[in-house]
Amino acid sequence: MFDNLSDRLGQTIKRLRGQGRLTDDNIKEALRDVRMALLEADVALPVVRGFVEKVRERAVGQEVMKSLSPGQALVKVVNDELVTIMGKANESLNLTTQPPAVVLMAGLQGSGKTTSVAKLARFLKEREKKSVLVASCDIYRPAAIDQLKTLAGEVSAEFFPSTIEDKPVKIAKAALKYAKKHMIDVVIIDTAGRLHIDVNMMSEIKDIHQAINPVETLFVVDSMTGQDAANTAKAFNDALALTGVILTKTDGDARGGAALSLREITGKPIKFLGIGEKTDALEAFHPDRVASRILGMGDILSLVEQAEHKVDREEAEKLAKKLKKGKKFTLEDFRTQIQQMKNMGGISKLVDKLPGMGDVPNQVKDQINDKEFNRQEAIINSMTPKERVHPQLIKGSRKRRIAAGSGTQIQDVNRLLKQFTQMQKMMKKMSKGGMKNMLRGMKGRMPPGGMPF
Amino acid sequence: MGIFSFKKNKDTSTEEEMDQEKGFWTRLKGSLSRTRHGLTDGFASLLLGKKSIDEEVLEELETRLLMADVGIEATQSIIENLTNRMQRKQLADGNALFAALREDMIQILQPCAQPLEIDETKSPFVIMMVGINGAGKTTSIGKLVKRLQIENKRVILAAADTFRAAAVEQLQTWGRRNNVDVVAQQRNADPGSVVYDALVAAKARSADVLIVDTAGRLHTQTNLMAELKKIRRVASKLDDSAPHEVLLVVDGGVGQNALNQALQFHEAVNLTGIVVTKLDGTAKGGILFAIAEKVGLPIRFIGMGEGIDDLRVFDAAQFVDALLDTEDD
Fold this sequence. Notes:
The complex is a heterodimer. Chain A is built from 21 helices and eight strands. Chain A is an alpha/beta fold. Chain A has an eight-stranded mixed sheet with strand order 3-2-4-1-5-6-7-8, with helices on both faces. Chain A is flat and about 75 Å long. The two termini of chain A are about 25 Å apart. The model of chain A is unreliable at about 440-453 (pLDDT under 50). By secondary structure, chain B is α/β, with parallel strands linked by helices. Chain B has two domains: about 15-110, SRP54, nucleotide-binding domain (Four Helix Bundle (Hemerythrin (Met), subunit A)); about 125-315, 3-Layer(aba) Sandwich (Rossmann fold), CATH 3.40.50.300. Helix content of chain B is about 50%, strand content about 15%. Chain B contains 13 helices and eight strands. In chain B, a hairpin with a 7-residue loop joins strand 7 (about 300-305) and strand 8 (about 310-315). In chain B, helix 6 (about 95-110) runs antiparallel to helix 13. The two termini of chain B are about 15 Å apart. Chains A and B meet through helix 2, helix 7 and helix 10 of A and helix 4, helix 8 and helix 11 of B.
């Protein structure tokens, strides 16, 4: 997400960056570009207007004109305003109430409510150690209740059974009652998708809302939604007093305009992003980080958090200790590293968050994928444990066997072995002389320019 | 109007005939009312008290087209055309502007208004439905089945969405309601194998049409797109020409991203048509112009409600008229 918006804004800003002075003309041109970029990204028009106006006011003001590098100052202004529009800091769920805390999900058809219920249940169970009950009030779409039941099983949340003969309000009330009786911390109520202009359905969800009095009413929106995102959000907000938004399907290539519009129009924070099909693909939304991602300045903070979360620390420490002791880095270790990398969502997801990636051409970015890692893992998997520790054993016929076993060519096996030998050398240096030596070893192997951090 | 829950509609749907032109007209107008209000409320106030059309009006018009998700390129080509005529003094007043706008918009959509034709020599005629998550594939299949049944076609469904929880059950429910066989396997089965089974079954039962439901997938996910290519390959195992129709289902509420979806899916599985859904609630519909202008694939159907017969053949002139209609209703 945000890629195209980053590209467009990046170009505009780059042009300004070089300018020693900002004139009315080049500010005007830049702002027109910004307006186009935002519109192309499906940011709602009223929001675009407000945004451009605010940036213009500040751009002609003292703060930018007087600064040594006006281009940079303008970048800062755009960045500030982006953050303001999306809300200042991350706001998490407010579950401080007498349990059970009730969370109500609402949204259009196909926005991803049921999937988000499962993701949220898992999130609350794993990160907040809550017991979670989920219930479905979707008596309209065929098999919607089955869907939630299956998902609840997958994330091992408790499922409150309901049938299409029940009234939605009754289901919600009964689920709440059940939760009270069984001391459950959080109840998540899934509802049927509905249009904001459907009077009957809107009054139904109002009734549910009234009956269970949720602490959190979350609006689930598809990040690909066009100009209409703002309208629907407003209608739902008026009807239900929303407390937050979950933006889904952000792993696609949508330009993320909805993220900018929603907060501004409803005044309610975006709390989570859905970032994939699996039930763990839910991410807390950090406006400041997203703003810097939009401007192509990377999102190191999220990267670090992700690493902390997904990387198996024990494994990492084990390897570090092993190397320190002067033991050899083996193919087993190499494989573990590949797996850790995959755990973090693969290299392509990591690259997204690195600063400066906006300037890398798309063709290059497309080449960075996880195929190579998968192949390497397969090759190592096709080796015997002995071969993994003593790769020098691997000669002609073994190579042929490994290649056949992993569905690769002998050349691939050779390449892996060569790469591994280089890594081994590097690791050796590191264990002897620490980081300094390793960096020296890496010099010349990094792309020119290096990483900007 | 336009939205009924299934329950209510189950009873009425059989009575309603498909080609009630008048009923359809009002329905389309009703369904598009939000789009129309977005566009035409503005026109009325825009033209109020103006004797001639000036730059300002055109600029406002541009903004409004953009707001209706028409897309930068489509909008710019429409505006450019209008500007040219304005400079040639061909647009004297509001009515002339209107006529010109209508003409331009129809011109963009007309080449894409090609209805789906079932080739009777193919047995079965294989239709594959693809699209991103939550676009409305399974629901559209239900509606499509109803259409085909009215044309006396024997339909079989293949539940090749083996990924999403309860997707198979959802299709089976549709099948039961309409007395259609659904070929399914357990969850997480290989979708290719489901399709093969379904093809064999369809041939054995001499069905006219086989509709394949696939799992929703984002067009950016390489592996899932590769899976889709495989499904397509498998479908052609028993009949070289199958699938005869590959329909992309696009949510009408999606903004400019619908174009990327169309392009990517087209590249992967060679689309033959598009179904645009959920046009009953959203202020958009403008995305059709962008799709027509940039992708040029036939737009087969538009979905305008939750009722089982709310799937309509796409008609450019009617669509534009309903969109631009200034009469009060």
